[in-house]
Amino acid sequence: MSTPPPSPADDPRLELLARCAFPPAGAPLVCGVSGGPDSLALLALAVTAGCRVTAVHVDHGIRSGSADEAEVVSEAARRFGAAFRSERVEVAAGPNLEARARDARRAALGPGAATGHTADDQAETVLVNLLRGAGVDGMAAMRAGPEHPLLGLRRAETHRLCADLGLRPVVDPSNEDRRFLRNRVRHELLPLCADLAGRDVVPVLARQASLLAADADVLAEVAALVDPTDVRAVSAAPVPVARRSIRAWLRGEGSHPPSTAAVDRVLAVARGEHRAAEIAGGVRVTRRRGELEIGGLPGGRGASGTVGP
């Protein structure tokens, strides 16, 4: 049975909704719900926003107790009148476990699905991407909108909402595992930054991401006007614009996401500094009659020295 419509006088969801970015009432929305406080808050708020919600629990098979977690999500979906389904994905042990599990979850949820990331997650993402040497797009982090509707909320608010609604979230012990970079950023780096700055830096980092997202959008619009296969156009464009145009072209042609070093090698070919460039994924870019062309390497493999994604 679904819960009755909230009363403006006593429902804690209504004030929070004003800072969320859900699609219009009546729109279908898949919500990734792990059973943690952020995702349970996402479910409750999405239903309150009037969306036709399907709560999806994705079991990575990484730890025991996943069946109990799915039941927590199923029960919450029944309470709020949302549909529910459970998905199982296999993520083998090994390097980059956290990233591979995240990718598998996103694939299981499908395009356009909403996740419960908050402003605190946004701040962590900015710092993680900074440490990894990301450019403007990486520093812009997640974009506010229907796929990330809770970026205007703080983690403390989603936890408090669950308590106010009488929900009992799942506790994920992996969130305390300091082997994962994000957890060290959360538990060590962010508190240190706050101590050094003498204030809460989460709003500062989230605002920085928003500003850089706007800059990235402008660069993308300008780069879209440049034909990346036209060597004269690419050579004449400002380097940041030329790089973005080439990167979009390479990704659109089905190659692996190219590194900056690979993009710069292609740019050197456009300028006539080299005859060809080899990039990850068995791809070779050559210059011919004033145009850049993409082809495969012999045997479908890159030569030694190829820079991966």
Helices and strands, in order, run as HEHEHEHHHHHHHHHEEE
For the biggest β-sheet, the strand order reads: 1-2-3
Distance between the termini: 49 Å
* Overall spatial form: elongated
Name the CATH architecture of the largest domain. Answer: 3-Layer(aba) Sandwich
Fourth CATH level, the homologous superfamily of the largest domain:
HUPs
Largest sheet: 3 strands, parallel
Helix and strand content put the structural class at: mainly alpha
CATH topology term of the largest domain: Rossmann fold
Number of domain modules: 2
Provide a compact summary of the structure.
This protein is mainly α.
Secondary-structure map:
Blueprint: H1 13-17, E1 28-32, H2 37-48, E2 52-59, H3 66-80, E3 83-88, H4 97-109, H5 119-131, H6 136-140, H7 155-164, H8 181-197, H9 202-223, H10 231-236, H11 239-252, H12 260-270, E4 276-279, E5 283-288, E6 291-296
Parallel strand pairs: 1-2, 2-3
Antiparallel strand pairs: 4-5, 5-6
Helix pairs in contact: 2-3, 2-7, 5-8, 5-9, 9-11, 11-12
Describe the structure.
The chain is mainly α. It has two domains: 13-190, HUPs (Rossmann fold); 224-300. Helix content is 46%, strand content 11%. It has helices at residues 13-17, 37-48, 66-80, 97-109, 119-131, 136-140, 155-164, 181-197, 202-223, 231-236, 239-252, 260-270; strands at residues 28-32, 52-59, 83-88, 276-279, 283-288, 291-296. The strands form two sheets. A three-stranded parallel β-sheet has the order 1-2-3. A hairpin with a 3-residue loop joins strand 4 and strand 5 (283-288). The longest helix has 22 residues, at 202-223. Mean pLDDT is 88; it is low at 298-309.
